[in-house]
Amino acid sequence: MNTLEEAAPLHGISLGFSGAVPERKYWTTATQDRDILEFVSVLSGLVLKYGGKIVHGAHPTFTPVVLRQAELQGRAGGAPGVTIVMSELWAKHQSAFERERFQRESRFLLVPQVGAGEATDPEVRNASLTALRHVLVTEMNMLVAVGGMRHLGSGFAPGVAEEIDLARRRGLACFIVGGFGGEAASAAEKFKLDPRSLRNGLTDEQNAALLESTDVSACVGLIFDHLVRSGARLAAQAGAK
User: How many whole angstroms separate alpha carbon 19 and alpha carbon 4?
Assistant: First the structure.
């Protein structure tokens, strides 16, 4: 192992976070928001600390957590460790202060909105977010899904399901953390019978733990340890069919 690998064992990994804190009415525990955000905070911090990068689609519940970790794990004189991808559908309403922070703490990519209108229009929203997600998955070489809004009866397409689908089409390793509810829990049900199709290199037992566990530390530890051991191989498979 060379010096770079010893100091930054996750160098070359671009881990995408898919998800959000779900709507309150779908919470299964009183601390579901705290558990999800703790998972995002700890795992993103570890990935950044050990040389990897984080990619996220600018959901307002995850983005402040990821940007805070970018501040804490700042890389002096280097490129930002975080990439935030946002649709112009929302970016056009950003304050100057918010835009400046995004540009300071991340590599901030804007994707044109699709159609005329606002985010309240399901057709414009869904088309714009699909365009964003096509860009998003090209910026990552593996994906972890946790939480996620369900949007039942709203006409809005669930983002977690679409991001997992796009990531799998590109051959990306996917880690689905289903125990904290939201759309990721629905996705977890679909993969319980065929966890190897996630192409993440975990055993069936390890995938089962991620798909069901409500232990934040255990989920973070399982993924992080696996990335240290196998992350380079998983990153190399991105783009394979």
Answer: 31
Q: Give 3-state DSSP helix, strand, coil % of the chain, rounded to 5.
A: 50, 15, 35
Q: For the CA atoms of the chain, what is the radius of gyration?
A: 17
Residue 239 has pLDDT above 70, yes or no: no
List CB contacts of 141: < 8 A, sequence separation 6 or more: 12, 13, 14, 172, 234, 235, 238
Give the angle subtended at the CA of 225 by the CAs of 223 and 228, to the nearest 5°.
110
Distance CA 36, CA 141 (A): 22
Token readout for 130 is: 């699909």
pTM tops 0.70, yes or no: yes
The three-state secondary structure class of 177 is strand
Q: What angle (nearest 5°) sits at the alpha carbon of residue 172, between those of residues 107 and 141?
A: 25
Phi, psi of 173 (to 5 degrees): -65, 135
Neighbouring-strand partners of residue 147 = 20
Amino acid residing at 44: S
Which residue is it, tokens 């040389």? 51
- pLDDT of 44-100, one tens digit each? 999 999 999 999 999 999 999 999 999 998 765 567 899 999 999 999 999 999 999
Cα–Cα distance for residue pair 114/124, rounded to 1 Å: 6
Tens of pLDDT, residues 145-197: 999 999 999 999 999 999 999 999 999 999 999 999 999 999 999 999 999 99
Query: Could you give the angle at which helices 216-236 and 32-49 cross, rounded to 10 degrees?
Result: 40
Mean pLDDT across the chain: 94
Q: Is 69 helix (H, G, I), strand (E, B) or coil?
A: helix
Fold of the CATH domain 10-236: Rossmann fold (3.40.50)
